[in-house]
Design goal:
The protein is of the alpha/beta class and 260 residues long. The chain has 11 helices and 8 strands. It has an 8-stranded mixed β-sheet, sandwiched between helices. The protein is globular, with a radius of gyration of 17 Å.
């Protein structure tokens, strides 16, 4: 199946929970380029009584159009609108009043920024979430670092169709304010939030991407915030997948099952 975003088809699959429903629903947002799909989390979420909607952004893994970090945010918004359509919601047994975003790495950035901007989203989970705006401010101050990051993006981008690493670095610099997760504190502080990091993550280091957001939300008196750092976890939580799934599903069940 697929969703439409600005005329492009987004490849997708819906993991529908057992039972008549309607069920609360998670949009599961993958990172860059999406080698790690976190489909073990999709199945755990489904076992916990939630639907899990997984899709590829424009220009990723055979979806139409071209990839950009801005398109990622737009695509999340389009999928949220699509699953709210009465026919789609009825067919897939979706309770549109109970919607959560769960994202990993770049998907964590997407869950936080799109979730801050979309009123229909009440619950947000960021797993090793990237702060692209904060990253932009750091790397653009040093041209060699920016060039190195652009080269890394090119090296990762095999299944991605769109601009190269240099253009993507320029994009995050141009939209640094919007892409900075700490720029959305007022909106995020009113949501239910689970922020997860790995102490051994060398891709989205907790000290740069996780801790500043947690501290800003605590200063803002966030209504419902849980933050967790897995002491032995790397970027993929490769040795703690069961514990990660348990934390996410227990939090969803405890904090997000009730309708808004």
């Amino acid at each position: 199946m697929g969703f439409q975003s600005n005329g492009a088809n987004l490849n997708a699959i819906v993991y529908v929970a057992q039972g008549r429903g309607p069920h609360p629903t998670v949009l599961l947002l993958h990172g860059f380029p999406g080698n790690e799909r976190n489909l073990d989390l999709a199945q755990a979420i489904r076992r916990a009584g939630w639907n899990a909607v997984f899709f590829h952004y424009r220009g990723a893994w055979g979806s139409g159009g071209t990839f950009s970090f801005l398109h990622v945010i737009e695509d999340v918004g389009e999928v949220v609108r699509a699953i709210h359509q009465p026919t789609f919601a009825e067919t897939h047994r979706i309770d549109v009043d109970r919607l959560a975003l769960v994202g990993h790495s770049m998907g964590g950035y997407a869950s936080l920024v799109a979730g801050a901007e979309i009123d229909a989203v009440s619950c947000i989970v960021s797993i090793a979430g990237a702060n692209l705006g904060g990253l932009a401010r750091t790397i653009t101050e040093e041209p060699e670092v920016a060039a190195g990051f652009a080269a890394s993006v090119d090296g990762w981008s095999g299944p991605i169709k769109g601009p190269g690493g240099k253009a993507l670095v320029e994009e995050i610099a141009q939209h640094a304010d919007r892409f900075d997760t700490t720029s959305h504190i007022d909106q995020l502080a009113r949501k239910k939030l689970l922020l997860i990091a790995g102490a051994r993550d060398v891709v989205t280091r907790a000290g740069m991407h996780h801790a500043p957001l947690v501290e800003a939300l605590e200063r803002a008196g966030a209504d419902s915030l849980e933050a967790s750092v897995f002491e032995f976890a790397d970027h993929s939580f490769s040795g703690q997948r069961i514990a990660l799934a348990r934390l996410v599903t227990n939090w969803l069940r405890r904090e997000c099952m009730a309708a808004k």
